[in-house]
Amino acid sequence: MKIMPLSEGSFTIDHSKVFIPFDPVTDNMQQRSKGSLLVEIQPFLVETSRDLILLDAGLGFSQHGVLQLFDRIDSLGYAASDITKVLMSHLHRDHAGGLSFKDVYTDAYHLSFPNAVHYIHKQELHFALYGGNPSYDATGLYLLEKHDKVVLLDDFGVIDGYITHQLSSGHSLFHQVFFIREDGDTLLFAGDEAPQLQQMKTRFVAKYDQDGKKAMALRQEWWEQGQKEGWTFAFYHDISTPTFSFR
Fold this sequence. Notes:
CATH class: Alpha Beta
Oligomer: single chain
Number of strands: 19
Strand order of the largest sheet: 1-5-6-9-12-13
CATH architecture: 4-Layer Sandwich
Number of domains: 1
Largest sheet: 6 strands, mixed
Number of helices: 5
Shape: globular
């Protein structure tokens, strides 16, 4: 199993839910609006013997009209069309913005990864489209509702015999996590419930989680089990330590 981080870089976000690029060399946090948070955004590409998998789809940040995510994938020697599965922990803007793109000529939205089967929790998609929550941008997600490349998941199950998904509901109500198991290795991708290495090592209750205590308990549970069983973790919001392995 090969795990490749696809960093989109650092951004600040405030109550407006607008992500603004942040360069730590030239930008100053004190000049950003009061209450701004600094976040790193990092999807992952995972190559297994059967699939090329994308773990969450990033913010959808574009440079010169091209998704930065496409550039990251190209730099690793792959193309967006090579991806066979997209696994979505949840559909907040910074995780789902790269799922689709708008045609500049027709204004229609298209899947960014046209050959991939997209795995999304069924209630998460409904809530993203109709819940009215500002953490979601439904505009580019409507095409997912009845698309033949989208599989809507229940609370627990196994995909193709080696990928387990389960509802976790710590960060957001219908957040889910994925375990990819191959050749004795286990990779846990837990989206915003295991976003950074440091949060795995401390008892931290995040104000941005819908159930912070549950998310904290899940992190402790996964960390302890991962240590016993030799898991690898992929951290979506930790560019300095994108992965950590007990193997």
